[in-house]
Specification:
Largest sheet: 8 strands, parallel
Distance between the termini: 29 Å
Radius of gyration: 19 Å
Structural class: alpha/beta
Number of strands: 10
Helix content: 25-40%
Shape: globular
Length: about 375
């Protein structure tokens, strides 16, 4: 599909909704509404630093999108219709679907609206309203499988968005997942699809136990599933090296015409559910590095996933939003790209060598 970079406005699109706070967590559950409040605060900090303001007309700063629930047709592109129907029957109920994934009376409605947020960003970017968009859904989505909820997730927001981009005519859709937990649901949905490149950086071993480097896709999709399982303790330098050696070369060769990020912030050093050592600056640097390699005509949608420390969520979301505004026409301080030139611990270096060896038959990695 042909894209014209000149059509984009400088506004950044935001898809958020009060309904997301109606997904009410049980006491002490890490996936709680305060997470979204922290992300909103981070985006507001980035906006203030950039000197921009809300502009419903889209002429400055950022534009809040109006949107509806995802439709049954949109959900059925990646989810089993029987599952969507069964989830609907649970509306208004409370309880646990598995040991991690809960329902409150407002959860099903929030999940339908969350998937709608991701769809709305794709729609708006596709029609040239902006080049960049942020969807801030709760509940998160990337663990949700075609036929069941899993890992705090009810519906797979980013997968619904990627399938919608394909339905709009985009031929090469990137889903880059840097949540610290492997996006097993998204992988499953596109495992044999050559039109969707799924790239996941994740702590390994860790929940959900999937995401081995050798899981490459199947059939026509073989080679379009790129897993980077990283040992615990990975720092900004490790992620920078992973980007430089594998992620960016693969993306550049795939040449997406639409890009999405499953944006979890739980690889941050403060996060209680993982053992990685990323900083907020590292998240901003990954965003800038991605933008450096994407074609300037390629829209980018950022879709919120995990992250469970409130300070880390605020600072990391501010860093990602700042990177988007830095890449726009606004005069803000430049956000650095990831630096791959630091010496890595041998365990981390060995993991990256192994990943590159596995991917070498499919991509030119130097």
């Amino acid at each position: 599909m042909s894209l014209d970079s000149g059509r984009f406005s400088s506004s950044i699109l935001i898809a958020d909704d009060a309904l997301f706070l109606e997904h009410v967590a049980p006491v002490e559950h890490p996936e709680r509404g305060e997470r979204l409040l922290a992300v909103r605060a981070g985006v507001a900090l980035a906006a203030a630093a950039a000197g921009v303001r809300t502009a419903q007309g889209g002429h400055a700063g950022y534009t809040a999108l109006a949107f509806d629930d995802a439709t049954d047709e949109q959900l059925a592109r990646v989810h089993d219709p029987a599952y969507v129907e069964s989830l609907g029957h649970l509306a208004g109920r409370s309880g646990y679907l598995d040991s991690d994934t809960y329902l409150s009376p407002g959860s099903v409605a929030a999940a339908r609206r969350a998937a709608g947020a991701a769809v709305s960003v794709v729609d708006a970017l596709h029609h040239g309203r902006a080049r960049f968009g942020l969807a801030l859904p709760r509940p998160p989505g990337h663990h949700a499988l075609p036929d069941r909820a899993m890992g705090f997730c009810l519906l797979n927001n980013v997968a619904v968005a990627a399938a919608h981009a394909r339905a709009l005519g985009h031929q090469r859709v990137l889903v880059l997942d840097w949540d610290v937990h492997h996006g097993n649901g998204t992988e499953a949905m596109f495992y044999d699809d050559p039109s969707v490149l799924f790239v996941s950086l994740h702590q390994y071993p860790n929940y959900p136990g999937t995401g081995a480097a050798e899981d490459l896709g199947q059939g026509e999709g073989r080679g379009r599933n790129v897993n980077l399982p990283l040992p615990p303790g990975a720092t900004d330098a490790v992620y920078a090296a992973a980007f430089a050696r594998v992620v960016l070369p693969v993306i550049e060769q795939f040449a997406p015409d639409f890009a999405l990020v499953s944006c979890g912030f739980d690889a941050h050093a403060r996060d209680p559910l993982a053992q990685m050592e990323l900083s907020a600056t590292g998240f901003g640097a990954m965003t800038t590095s991605l933008l450096d390699v994407l074609d300037k005509r390629c829209p980018l949608g950022i879709v919120l996933e995990g992250g469970y420390d409130l300070e880390a969520l605020r600072d990391s979301s501010a860093a990602v939003a700042s990177a988007l505004w830095s890449a726009s026409s606004f005069a803000v301080a430049s956000v650095p790209s990831a630096r791959p030139d630091q010496v890595l611990a041998e365990q981390q270096a060995a993991a990256l060598r192994r990943i590159a060896d596995v991917q070498a038959p499919f991509w030119r990695l130097g």
